[in-house]
Amino acid sequence: MCAFHIIDLGAMQILDSRGRPTLSVTLTLAGGATGWAGVPSGASTGAKEAVELRDGDDSRYGGAGVTRAAARITGTIFQRLKGRPWYSLADVDQALIELDGTPDKSRLGGNATVGVSMATARAVAMAHGQQLWEFLSPSTVRPRLPVPHFNMVSGGLHASNQLDFQEFMIAPIGAPTMAEAVRAGVEIYAVLRGNLAAAGRPTGQGDDGGFAPDFTHPREVLSALMDAVDDAGYTASRDQVAIALDPAATRFRRADGAYQVAGERLSTLEMIEMYAQLAADYPIWSIEDGLAEDDEDGWRQLTERLGDRLQLVGDDVFCTNPAVIEQGIAGNIGNAALIKVNQVGTVTETLQAMDLCRKHGYARMVSHRSGETVDDFVAELAVATGCGQFKGGAPARGERVIKYNRLMHIAAQRPDLPFGLADR
């Protein structure tokens, strides 16, 4: 790869989809190629995630401002990156890691490093005349259009209702194309809204755009999803329109180790049995963070009990961190990993995490965050890595829809790309 030179690096504070501050980063290369990044941010975060650098000034944005992180980008980081040749995105990312010098990106801020990394990727792709997904695609991987997993109902930290489970999603696994998968998601979402309204249920939205009705038990939601799929003219089954759950169980595990779901205290074994029963009664194909991130013995039992029947996705338990994922694989924790670029802090480390999963037969699902921008980077990443799964929120609201629209644009431009779940 030819050398490139970074001649300008800018950053400013903008707002994410929840009205909280986040970063906008712009990077310019000699020759005029530019890259932009809008940095996402999560509400339900794992303990091992890269640390965001926030201002801590309670008089402004309740302490959540990111002007310090912006200053790190335009100061310390730019001073390190300018005035020398770079030969790859990996080289830039390694420089960011070394400059930060902490295991969790806490000196520069994971929000600062990931913004620079994403912007660099876009700029270098432009300089090479490539689309972002083409540039990001590993040489050993065939790009693939992923099955979208649409958030239909939200709970947990993502909504102001009594649901303990965080996300209830539908996945049009049986759709023949990306366009038809998106159509299914949109039509089912619209029918669900109508059904909730007709039943006198609230149709306000959670952080991800999913509805936040006044349900209390997961079965109420699952029954409503089954009705919506059927009423919209689709078939609810594991090979047509399947259901995916993200309980985000760390949030409802109590200090004594018990889990609290719909007012009932459950042991780890009882939680596992609940999932087994739900999967027997509904077309559930994937469960993310079914147990808490520190319940390692429970995760092994969950994997042993259900791993041959269900996709068991680690999010908080892995945090897109290659070292943590490697430990999890050795410990027989789950069989898939959720992938969030900002969890680990650089694009290169994200690609390394996905490569590690692929080599060990773990599935990958690229994901947005609850606090999003109109950056569609994660949609490009999902196609580039051929993972076959993408979680982008509801088919509503601009910061979510822009990801699905980008996937449809790529599908239209490249009809030769396969669509659907990938082999592990």
Automatic annotation (TrEMBL):
Similarity annotation: Belongs to the enolase family.
KW Membrane (keyword) present: no
Residue numbers binding (2R)-2-phosphoglycerate: Q166, K340, R369, S370, K391
Active site per database record: D208 (proton donor), K340 (proton acceptor)
Summary of the function given for this chain in its UniProt record: Catalyzes the reversible conversion of 2-phosphoglycerate (2-PG) into phosphoenolpyruvate (PEP). It is essential for the degradation of carbohydrates via glycolysis.
Cofactor note: Binds a second Mg(2+) ion via substrate during catalysis.
GO molecular function: phosphopyruvate hydratase activity
Domain called Enolase N-terminal: residue spans: 6-136
UniProt-listed NCBIfam families: eno (TIGR01060)
Domain of life the protein comes from: Bacteria
Documented EC number(s): 4.2.1.11
Known cofactor(s): Mg(2+)
PANTHER family: ENOLASE (PTHR11902)
Identification of the protein by name: Enolase
Main subcellular location: cytoplasm
Pfam family, one: Enolase_N
Keyword terms: Cytoplasm, Glycolysis, Lyase, Magnesium, Metal-binding, Secreted
Biochemical pathway: Carbohydrate degradation; glycolysis; pyruvate from D-glyceraldehyde 3-phosphate: step 4/5
Reaction equation(s) it catalyzes: (2R)-2-phosphoglycerate = phosphoenolpyruvate + H2O
Enzyme class (EC, first level): lyase
